[in-house]
Each structure stands twice: as C-alpha cells, then as structure tokens.
Write a structure and sequence with these properties.
Layout (H helix, E strand, L loop, with lengths): L5 E3 L2 E5 L6 H11 L1 H5 L11 H9 L2 E9 L2 E10 L16 E9 L8 H15 L4 E3 L7 H9 L12
Parallel strand pairs: 5-6
Antiparallel strand pairs: 1-2, 2-3, 3-4, 4-5
Helix pairs in contact: 1-3
C-alpha cells in the first residue's frame, strides 16, 4: 500500500490516479453539494464541469476515498489539499503556519460510514507533515449543519470571505 493510503474499515483513501474517472468525481461532487445548491447557494463543486474538476485536481494534492464494490472499487469521496488557484485566497490561508483543503465531498448514498472522517484525517496528517499548525477551509455560512460538523471536529470560525 502506498504511504499516502489510509484504511478505515472497507474504505481506502489514496491519491487520485490517472485511471480514475473525472466524470464520476464530478457527478459525486454534484450529489454531495446538492443540498447547498437547493438552499440557493452556488458552491463551485456543486456546479463545475469535468474540465474544472480535472484542473482543480491537477492543481492540488487530490485524494479519493474508494470502497470495494462488485467488479472493483468505487470512488465514494474526494478532497483537495493545498489547491493552487488563480483566485485571491482569504488572508488567513496565506499565513505560513496554515494549510487548507477544498472540494470535500462524500457521496450522500454512503455518508455515515467514516469516509469523510478518513478524508479529513488524510489532509490533517498532510498539514502536520508540512509543519502547519492550523488547517483552513472555506464553506458557505448558511449551511449550519456543515458548520456544526466542522466545529465538532475542532475547527473554528476565523473570518468572512467572498470568493471572486
């Protein structure tokens, strides 16, 4: 097993492979972010096309959570670590002791199985390996359920930010 893999029961987190299906990941993200879209929010991951999914994965450390399924493995979740974008980042993201993650999604059909936890543990470990003392994210404030999820994991509110 490669050094970056993480086992969590029947779930394995590993780096994205060239053979992984970008359209499958885009579809997973659209399903994972559908609740925010239904709230009237416009998260990029909930509306991006395959070319944007590919570009974002190529400009970051992209990890996927896979589960064994009939006939092989199936991608059940995705997360980006230290995505490099053309957009201006929130000031907190630019601090030398901070790493960040983005495009975090788990297929709603398999949520509650520890897949999200395994993905977060992967980027939390990567942040420690890079010497970061904090790990940042950006989320849509109206999604209080998601906000509460992060607070329970020990994350805190730092600043308001509107992505360009």
């Amino acid at each position: 097993m490669p050094a970056n893999d993480h086992k969590a029961g029947a779930v394995t987190v590993r780096p994205l492979l060239p053979s992984d299906s970008i359209p499958a990941i885009t579809g997973l993200l659209h399903r994972a972010y559908a609740k925010q879209v239904a709230m009237g929010l416009r998260p990029l991951a909930g509306r991006q096309d395959d070319s944007v999914t590919q570009e974002r994965a190529a400009n970051s450390e992209c990890y996927v959570a896979v589960v064994e399924a009939a006939g092989g493995e199936s991608i059940a979740g995705v997360i980006l670590f230290e995505e490099q974008e053309q957009a201006t980042f929130p000031p907190f993201f630019l601090k030398p002791h901070v790493c960040h993650f983005a495009q975090f999604g788990v297929d709603p059909d398999v949520q509650g199985r520890g897949i999200g936890r395994a993905l977060l543990e992967t980027v939390e470990r990567r942040a420690r390996e890079k010497g970061a003392t904090e790990l940042a994210l950006s989320m849509a404030e109206p999604d209080r359920e998601l906000y509460d999820f992060y607070v329970k994991r020990g994350y805190r509110f730092v600043e308001h930010w509107q992505w360009p």
